[in-house]
Amino acid sequence: MDYEQIRYEVRDDVAWITLDRPDKLNAWTPRMSEEEADAVTRANDDPTVGAIVLTGSGRGFCAGADMEETFQKRIDGTDPGAGTDRGSGGLPEGLDWVAMVRASKPIVAAVNGAAVGIGLTRILPFDVIVASEKARFGMMFIKVGLVPELASTHYLVQRVGFGRASELSLSGRLIDAEEAGRIGLADFVVPHDELLERAGALARSMGENPPPQLRMTKQLLTENAADTDLTAIQQRESALLRECWKTPEHKEAVAAFQEKRAPRFR
Fold first, then answer.
1. Least CB-packed of 58, 169, 201, 246 within 10 Å?
2. Is the whole model's pTM more than 0.85, yes or no?
C-alpha cells in the first residue's frame, strides 16, 4: 500500500509509524486509518521488528477527526470513504482497530502534541502511552454532539478510574501532560526533546523479549483486566503457561541463563 498520510520506517528493530498531515495537526481521515492498519500489519509480519511506536509529525499528535473530510461530508450525505458508516466507531468497514492493537506486537504511543477525540481514543488500548511535556489530551466528543468510540469508554475507565473518565468525557475538557501523567492517562511524561528517544528505548525493551510470549501476555491482559472470576483468570493463564513450556523461546531463555549469555529470540 502506498502511504499518503503516514510515514513508515524501521530503526533498531522498532517500526516507527508517523502520522503525516502536519498542516492539519495530523487530523484523522478514513484513509489514515487504512494506512495505519496496513503499517501495523506490516510491522507484525516483519520478523526483524520487535515493537512499534506511533507518533505525529509537526507540533500535533492528532487533533481528532478532520471536520471537513469526515463530519461535514457525512452531514452533506456523502460517505467520507471506506464504508465508515458501517464500520466500528466510524472507522473503515471491516477494520477492528482495538482487536488489531491488542493482538499486535508491543505498541507505544509517543504523544508529541494534541491528542484529541479519535486522536486519543485510538491509543487508549496501546500498551504504553509516553507523552511529551507539550502534549494535550481531550475526550471532546460531547463538544461536537457525539459519543466516544473504539472501546474508549472501557479503556479510559481502566486507565484513570470511573470518576475521572466520567468528568473528562462529560465535560470535554482539555488537559495538559502533567495532569494526564498524574491521573494515569499517560504512563510517562518526558521532556519534549527526549520523547522519541524514550519511546524508542521503551519499545525496544519490550520488543527484545520472545514474540510468542509477548502476544500471549497481551492476550491475558486483554481478557483478564476486567474479569472478576479469579478461577477463569487462572485457567487462561495456566493454559498459556502450558503452551509456553513447549516453546523454543522458553528453551532458549533457560539455556541462555545457564550459559550466562543474552538470549536470542529473533
1. 246
2. yes
